[in-house]
Write a structure and sequence with these properties.
This protein has about 260 residues and is an alpha/beta fold. It contains 7 helices and 14 strands. It has one domain. About 25% of the residues lie in helices and about 25% in strands. Strands 7, 8, 9, 10, 11, 12, 13 and 14 form an 8-stranded mixed beta sheet that branches. Helix 2 (about 45-55) runs parallel beside helix 3 (about 75-90). The longest helix is centred in the N-terminal third of the chain and has 16 residues, at about 75-90.
């Protein structure tokens, strides 16, 4: 398993070459239009980026960690008409498409039919180079999560807030990596007892580059945190931020101090 350099994607070699991405949010333009912000459809751009990533690593499977679509509870013309055509092009490359539904994916089976294979929204265990547990992150995982070594999730669109030399605050997409404790995770989420040992958490940046996300170093309100962190099994302050190009920025605690306590 490796992070694809410069891309918000995980590459898994076994048992089949797989790309894991999250939060594509086809159709997000429709919500912006409702707010009076009109931009051209980004479907082609997102599809081209997905195709480019697949060809780059010669992937045979692509797993979406939820929020493939954007609008809820209704769906936009982009999601009904453009999203299926985009995914058909991916499938025509010989790529198996798998979706672990997120909180924005309601009614998606009516739109996409058998273009994808749909997994449980609570997550799925993937036997790869390591035992991976994949989910979107908005729900509690199933007890099977305790069989894994690494949890990979999306949902948060993690970004880091950085202060420039001019005093401006800019945001950059990051990977968020934390170490956790299986015993605490099991107890707090009611997943059973008896499991001990380390379990790691990797939060995937949003594939869609336009979307905003959770600034990990500007103290997000606790109610906005996801079930895995609310469990107390993972310490967000000690989590490490890593850029898409692999630069290790340090812990969230260090980055919060560097920002000077600014709420960005």
């Amino acid at each position: 398993m490796k992070l694809l350099h410069g891309w918000p994607a995980v590459v898994v070699e076994k048992p089949v070459k797989t790309l894991i991405v999250s939060d594509v949010h086809f159709g997000f333009e429709a919500e912006l239009a409702e707010k009076g912000i009109r931009i051209p459809s980004q479907t082609r751009r997102l599809k081209d980026r997905l195709v480019e990533a697949v060809k780059m690593v010669d992937a045979r499977r692509m797993i979406f960690l939820g929020d493939l679509k954007h609008m809820v509870p209704l769906s936009s013309r982009i999601e009904w008409r453009e999203m299926p055509r985009a995914l058909e092009e991916l499938r025509d490359l010989g790529v198996e498409l798998v979706l672990i539904p997120g909180n924005h994916d309601g009614d998606i089976e009516r739109i996409l039919g058998d273009l994808l294979r749909y997994e449980d929204s609570r997550g799925v265990l993937l036997e790869a180079e390591k035992k991976l547990y994949l989910l979107h992150g908005h729900t509690r995982p199933s007890p099977q999560v305790l069989e894994s070594e690494i949890i990979i999730m999306g949902h948060l669109h993690p970004v880091v807030s950085l202060r420039t030399d001019l005093g401006l605050i800019v945001r950059r997409r990051i990977w968020l990596y934390a170490r956790g404790d299986k015993r605490v995770l099991a107890e707090k989420l009611g997943l059973g007892a008896g499991r001990r040992g380390r379990i790691d958490l990797l939060v995937v940046p949003a594939f869609n580059p336009i979307l905003t996300g959770m600034s990990v170093n500007s103290s997000p309100p606790r109610e906005k945190l996801w079930p895995l962190v609310k469990s107390g099994a993972f310490d967000l302050d000690r989590a490490e931020a890593i850029t898409l190009h692999g630069e290790r920025l340090g812990s969230i605690r260090q980055l919060r101090r560097a920002l000077g306590g600014c709420e960005a």
